[in-house]
Amino acid sequence: MSKQYETVIGLEVHVELATKTKIFCSCSTEFGGAPNTHTCPVCTGMPGSLPVLNKQVVEYAMAVGLAANCKINQDSKFDRKNYFYPDNPQNYQISQLYLPICHDGYVEIDTSAGKKKIGIHEIHMEEDAGKLIHDEWDDCSLVDFNRSGVPLIEIVSEPDMRSGEEVNAYLEKLRLIIQYLGASDCKLQEGSMRADVNLSIREVGAKEFGTRTEMKNLNSFKAISRAIEGERKRQIELIEEGKMITQETRRWDDNKESSYAMRSKEDAKDYRYFPDPDLPPIVISDEWIKSIQDRQPELRTEKMARYQDVFNLSEYDADIITGSKHIADIFEAVTELCGKPKEVANWLMVEAMRLLKEHEMEPEKMCFSPENLAKLIQLVDNGTINRTVAKEVFERIFAENVDPEKYVEEKGLKVVNDEGQLRETIQGIIDANPQSVADYHSGKEKAMGFLVGQTMKAMKGKAGPALVNQIVKELLG
């Protein structure tokens, strides 16, 4: 009988904070910009330059810690993590080893197996390094220090996850907590949220952990799932061949769907950590913690419960809408204007989601005003336009944020309720389709649907379906 193996996974998640300036200087943190234009002597590590801590970084770190049920270290400090790398201008990184700002928390995840708590060992603040750009044409590497000094928090989980599904649920939970707090946009593709996966294998029932490897270069949930599966298989094969697993850092190549060794895994002692002499300790008062607690917004879990309770949405609808803070914000704004939560939810979940998928857009890129969607819902409700026309108008709102009332007026899209005009059109269609009339009289109900469809086509979708059905039935006898 072959052995059964269990995968043990812990994550180190780096999140770029949404401050306007860097952690220890006043340079911009904006993504993009020409290389080395968002820099100064502090973030390029010039001799004699002194760091000054950005208070907003501490507040964001505390807000995330409190939302993740962590304890706050009221005496916290920074340490120097010493290593040489070309994009690390000081030859050390300012981080936190001994007294991180948050510790001993958890988040609860939902998977197909039910609810589970994933422990958070600690959350610490640190500065990001620069970025190496490899120029293959000139066969050289260039350094861009724009990202150097951008504030990060690193969220270190306990080794509590056992599958790719749990890892993705944990990352999704963290991403939504942080986005709802406004602490980061958490865009994996822009590197503002990055996950390193620590993974080991052990026989089912074993108490001891196996030798772990750390995988880097994971910038999408799909890549993380593939990397976990790939590394799990690789380690099981090594164990079954009687070979040793080396504790090392590996780089995942998502195109080749395989990983390769980068370097042997370092321990804290290899970095020669010591307290940073240029930065005083951070003393966090009870009042400061309370002020952050009082400012915490409604997070996704509470929002979902409220949408079901107050707006009578189903659990499924509430889940979809709160899956993006931006969509939830639009939903609330439109509902406040028109007072029809179910109708608003349907437009966002069906038409908006369809257009997002078609245009391969992130929800955050939707920029139409809540007022215009509220007006559209009112036009349908008043019977001014029908749903077919409304979908066409919504596409214009989505693309160009047009005013639906003006657009409907200009394009002549209002429902035609002139019974005389409709009767004339329908009589013409009945006269032109004798076979359909005969089919209807012989009991084929579909024939009537065809005649109604032809009428709607002739009226360019501007006729009221109820009135069309009534007149067709009447004229068919």
Write up what this structure looks like.
The structure is a single chain. With 477 residues, the protein is α+β, with helices and mostly antiparallel strands. The protein folds into 3 domains: 5-288, no CATH class; 298-411, no CATH class; 419-476, Arc Repressor Mutant, subunit A. Helix content is 40%, strand content 20%. The protein has helices at residues 55-67, 164-181, 221-240, 286-295, 300-310, 315-322, 325-338, 341-358, 370-381, 387-400, 404-411, 419-432, 434-441, 446-458, 465-476, and strands at 5-16, 71-72, 75-76, 79-82, 92-95, 102-111, 114-127, 131-135, 140-144, 151-157, 193-203, 213-216, 248-253, 258-264, 274-275, 282-283. Strand 8 (131-135) and strand 9 form a beta hairpin. The longest helix has 20 residues, at 221-240. It is elongated.
Can you summarize this structure?
This is Aspartyl/glutamyl-tRNA(Asn/Gln) amidotransferase subunit B. The protein is built from 15 helices and 16 strands.
Q: What distinguishing features does this structure have?
A:
alpha+beta; 3-stranded antiparallel β-sheet; about 20% strand; elongated; about 40% helix; Arc Repressor Mutant, subunit A
What layout of secondary structure does this protein have?
Blueprint: E1 5-16, H1 55-67, E2 71-72, E3 75-76, E4 79-82, E5 92-95, E6 102-111, E7 114-127, E8 131-135, E9 140-144, E10 151-157, H2 164-181, E11 193-203, E12 213-216, H3 221-240, E13 248-253, E14 258-264, E15 274-275, E16 282-283, H4 286-295, H5 300-310, H6 315-322, H7 325-338, H8 341-358, H9 370-381, H10 387-400, H11 404-411, H12 419-432, H13 434-441, H14 446-458, H15 465-476
Parallel strand pairs: 12-13
Antiparallel strand pairs: 1-10, 1-11, 2-6, 3-16, 4-5, 4-15, 6-7, 7-10, 8-9, 11-12, 13-14
